[in-house]
Amino acid sequence: MLARGGLRPVVLERHVTSHDALCGGFLSWSTAWRLRALGVDPASLGAHPIETMRLFSGLRGTEARLPQPSSSLSRRVLDAALLACAEAEGAQVRRGVKVASLAGDGWVELAGGGQIHAPFTVLATGKHDLRGAGRPAVSADPALGLRWRLTGSPRLRGLVGHVVELHLFAGGYAGLALQEDGSANLCMVVRRRVLAAAGGDPQVLLEQLAAAHPALAARIVAAGGEPGAAQAIANVPYGWITTEPAGDVFRIGDQAAVIPSLAGEGMAIALASGIAAGEAIAQGLDAARFQRRLARRAWLPVRVAGAIARAGTGGAGGGLVVGTAALLPGLPALAARLSRMGEGQLYTKARRC
Predict the structure, then answer these.
(1) What residues pair up with 72 in beta bridges, in sequence order?
(2) pTM of the prediction?
(3) Most buried residue among 97, 217, 291, 311 by CB atoms closer than 10 A?
């Protein structure tokens, strides 16, 4: 967006090559719309189509159609495509450069020494906080994020198909969907106390949950029964929304608004906030005004998703949510619509990267 506006932004990317990030594999219909508007078509990248959501809690399960077709795509593929698109538009992408902190007054300190000065900074570090621009804790029992990659198999494809699944349990939930290569992305959000009860070991926790949740166990068995080591991140401030920036810094993505992952709207918020930041900078808006505008757009989806997460993970709440969804089949689709980020405006014509 900045490059299309005539500027020459520099992207500092800490990884040399794109990799699978902990979150973001599910692409809702609102995410797909924004990607296509930017010039990146998920279907052309091989995204796995998703038409239905499925809810599980213990022995109970139900499913409902999504309001619009969605998809699943690994972050490895998606991030590579977005970076290539940015470079094609004229942005300078510097890979393997890690930022150590924001020093203020437009100075960015790099790991290993060196500084960069810019008239504005866009903070897009996702769920990872940066020194000098950290987010406050929002809970005494913070959420942790875990991710496993399940090996693809015909049996796993038969069980999951074109569905995004939510497995609800007391103190957390797990999302599961197939990806473009046939493997499955299993992402989990769990309260610290739940992981502590499993000795702090994600593998022990997964085994305990599989023993209590037959549907989850069946997916793990279908993938070979040994998902391997988990990616993890601690102290994710779900529900937090930035209203004031740290200096003249434009916060986007999870640095702007952290929506509970079960909504499947994290990537849409990342894209919407990135697009909005590009437009704001091109129009000469300051970071404070931009952040307040973005906070108003994010308020409803974040609050709706938070209410659903609390209902589905509190004690026997998962069974109640699944039972209610079975009795009122239109309710999951309504909840999905209410937890979408408004489209807003997009001051650019869609074109293929």
Answers:
(1) 26, 48
(2) 0.92
(3) 291
